[in-house]
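Fill-in record for Lipoprotein signal peptidase.
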Amino acid sequence: MSTDHPDRDVNAEDQPITEISKADEPETVKPEAVKSEDGDLAVAPVEKPRRLTMLIAIAAVILLSDILTKVWAVAAVKPGQPIEIIGDVVTFTMVRNPGAAFSMATSMTWILTLVAIGVVIGVIKIGRTLRSPWWALGLGLVLGGALGNLVDRFFRSPGIMRGHVVDFVSVGWWPVFNIADSAIVCGAILLVVLTLFGFEPNGERLRDHKADDKKFTESKAAAEGETK
């Protein structure tokens, strides 16, 4: 007599279990579908994170470093008594600078102060929608440097908006400078390079836009050709 159950599938033991409960399936994040201008559905691009926090953090580090080194320089470096670091090539030399970075435009203190304020406002405005980490780095360097020298303009003699900036780093024939000056120059160079290579503050690249526009034009032309 057979002991097999009449309703049992004899091949059930040989069949692999293929069903997985929905609870065990990995969760996937699906991009949101949006309508294009032509009414067709398109996948919305995933937005990159904003970089304002990164920009502020970099600016804060530069500002704090600039203030602390200037406080030290005022206390330790006496005018006319440079401190040699690498012979007479690299020294700490105290200079009170009424002008811009590297002692330029020494007779335009008021104007330079207003320009610096404008730079700070402009950087903050751009930073609110910033998504590129490289732009955040460049703008953070510029912002921190501008704020560092603005502190001197407002709080050092001879008075508010006319204060002389403390410069103390001397390298060879190069004009005496400070950390704020270095940050401004490095940040500005980085921003110029990013602009030349087509990197935009929103994290995208100019040539990618051109490639997308070209593909869109070609696909549209092909679609129009099929409808004729």
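KEY FINDING: DSSP finds five helices and five strands in the chain.
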